[in-house]
């Protein structure tokens, strides 16, 4: 179980770095916090190119993987007693 814990921690580090880089690669669409709350009208999502759609898909897949790794690490720590020390 200890080897699985180390592998998941390494996978968490790699996916965290890659997810950060992928998010930074996305094109900015808004002008700030006002756009986040509906204050600005930006172009629709359908106007993005093939490369940007693929970047979106890869970012979503990596984000889901990141979440699964975090949940798996939490379950391992909870049930193995690693978090009790």
From TrEMBL:
GO MF terms, alphabetically ordered: protein-transporting ATPase activity
InterPro entries: SecG (IPR004692)
Signal peptide: none
Locations listed in the record: Cell membrane; Membrane
GO CC entries: plasma membrane
Principal place of residence: membrane
GO biological process: protein secretion
NCBIfam families listed in its UniProt record: secG
Purpose: Involved in protein export. Participates in an early event of protein translocation.
UniProt name for this protein: Protein-export membrane protein SecG
Organism in which the protein naturally occurs: Pseudarthrobacter equi
């Amino acid at each position: 179980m200890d080897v699985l814990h180390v592998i998941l921690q390494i996978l968490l580090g790699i996916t965290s770095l890659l997810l950060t880089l992928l998010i930074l690669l996305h094109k900015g669409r808004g002008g700030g916090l006002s756009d986040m709350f509906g204050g600005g009208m930006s172009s629709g999502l359908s106007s993005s190119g093939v490369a940007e759609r693929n970047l979106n898909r890869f970012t979503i897949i990596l984000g889901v993987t990141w979440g699964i790794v975090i949940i798996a690490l939490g379950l391992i720590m909870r049930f193995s007693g690693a978090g009790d020390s």
